[in-house]
Design goal:
Pfam family, one: IMS_HHH_1
Protein name: POLI polymerase
Shape: globular
CATH topology of the largest domain: Alpha-Beta Plaits
Distance between the termini: 47 Å
Organism: Anhinga anhinga
Strand order of the largest sheet: 6-7-1-9-10-8
Number of helices: 17
Keywords: DNA synthesis
Structural class: alpha+beta
Strand content: 15-25%
Helix content: 40-55%
GO molecular function, one term: DNA-directed DNA polymerase activity
Length: 425
DNA sequence: TGGGGTTAT
DNA sequence: ATAACCC
């Protein structure tokens, strides 16, 4: 806006990655402060999905089985974390708090946020240039202990970024009681990689001269965010094991193996280059609820599970205020070999007469939805044949704002408030 | 390996 | 609808 494209793309960004420490465990310690100084794990089914640092000292790791965790640490206290409601709510409080500083906040999972603070940095830089020099230095760590050159405006911008990151962490602690790490760098990839270098409750800034060192410190390519399990397997088959290998690998061969789009993107990642913007997440694109279990093998059981999942979901949608236009059922069938990844799903539009009822209290939207979901189920499973499910998931998506006659502003602020009583038709 | 999320094809 | 990615 007002700036030529060339000047805008040449401008250096400042991005912060905020990563809360053992998030679920922290939320549980706030809910019950007596757990504070004890080894604590959060359990889902027979897995300890995360744990506090008292437990980590004693050898408990993320995603460890309950059996192994208890062996490592017999005093381990476990709380059930299968209901994500408290974590989800706290997570959005963090995102909203960051949104008070700056509009460009992108969520990643429940415990991470990217914030593009380029504009805030520019503002402070100008204040500095007008008001003379500031004595304040970097906040937190500098990756590699690299020396800062205050004559280099890129360094100065990142130093200001580190001060803002410190303010983020202070606000998150003061207002929500949560601790976390932050990484400051010139793009999302680097901010995320550098945020993990000093681990609980600390922050690190990366200066451009240390970028290659950071990338070379990644001993395995799967540590590069954006290079996942599948791509790693294919890269390994090509003899590519770390970021250096990927940098040096012939582009043309890579493009033929992985396709131009993936090849070009991940090869740039291997140099620490990432021009993907911080995209404000806004409200969620979907609401889902799932449950896994040992066995579900009859239509009646499936219906019961669906009836268990629906009320919670409908409540969440109701509180959000938007109306979903699509519903999806996902199942996982038992398989002794790859337990991971044999999910299938069917989705369909929600009939318009049902959509209208989503906002209204006390209208029975449950039973028609159960009927729709059972139809979707029968599209995947022949109920006359034996079956063995280990997971059911329901997802509402394609969320649309309510049709509002009062254009925009009024409707937005009104939906936050409790509706006036006795106004029903 | 849980219970969520996102985007690309 | 699936496949990939993220936590």
């Amino acid at each position: 806006h007002g700036k030529p494209v060339s000047a805008r793309s040449a401008a250096r960004r400042v991005v912060v990655h905020v990563d809360l420490d053992c998030f679920y465990a922290q939320v549980e310690m706030i809910r019950n402060p007596e757990l504070r100084d004890k080894p604590l794990g959060v359990q889902q089914k027979y897995i300890v999905v995360t744990c506090n640092y008292e437990a980590r000292k004693r050898g408990v790791k993320k995603l460890m089985s309950v059996k192994d965790a208890k062996e490592k640490c017999p005093q381990l206290i476990l709380v059930n974390g299968e209901d994500l409601t408290p974590y989800r709510e706290t997570s959005y409080k963090v995102t909203e708090l960051l949104g008070e500083f700056c509009p460009l906040v992108e969520r990643l999972g429940f415990d991470e946020n990217f914030v593009d603070i380029t504009e805030i940095v520019e503002k402070r830089l100008k204040q500095l240039q007008e008001g003379g020099c500031s004595r304040a230095g970097v906040s937190g760590h500098v990756y590699n202990h690299q020396a800062i050159n205050l004559h280099d405006t890129t360094h100065v911008r990142l130093v200001i970024g580190s001060q803002i990151a410190e303010e983020f962490r202070e606000a998150i602690y003061e207002r929500l009681g949560l601790t976390g790490c932050a990484g400051v760098a010139s793009n999302k990839l680097l901010s995320k990689l550098v945020s993990g270098t000093f681990k609980p409750n600390q922050q690190t800034v990366l200066l451009p001269e240390s970028c290659q060192d950071l990338m070379r410190s990644l001993d395995h390519i799967q540590k590069v965010p954006g290079i996942g399990y599948k791509t790693t397997k294919r890269l390994e088959a090509l003899g590519v094991r770390n970021a250096c290998d990927l940098q040096a690998f012939p582009s043309a061969v890579l493009e033929k193996e992985l396709g131009v789009s993936v090849a070009q993107r991940i090869q740039k990642l291997s140099y620490g280059e990432d021009d993907s913007p911080v995209i404000p997440s806004g409200p969620p694109q979907s609401f889902s609820d799932e449950d896994s279990f040992k066995k579900c093998s009859s239509e009646v059981e499936v219906k019961e599970k669906i009836e268990e999942l629906l009320p919670n979901l409908l409540d969440r949608i109701h509180r959000d205020g938007r109306q979903p236009h699509t519903v999806r059922l996902t199942i996982r069938q038992f398989s002794s070999t790859d337990r991971w990844f044999n999910r299938e799903s069917r989705q369909c539009p929600i009939p318009p007469h049902l959509i209208q009822k989503f906002g209204k209290e006390s209208s029975n939207v449950v039973s028609p939805l159960v009927d729709i979901l059972m139809k979707l189920f029968r599209k995947m499973i022949d109920v006359h044949l034996p079956f063995h499910l280990t997971l059911l998931s329901i997802c509402f998506s394609n969320l649309k704002d309510l049709p509002s006659s009062k254009k925009g502003s009024i409707g937005f602020y009104l939906k936050q408030m409790s509706p006036p009583s006795g106004s029903g038709k």
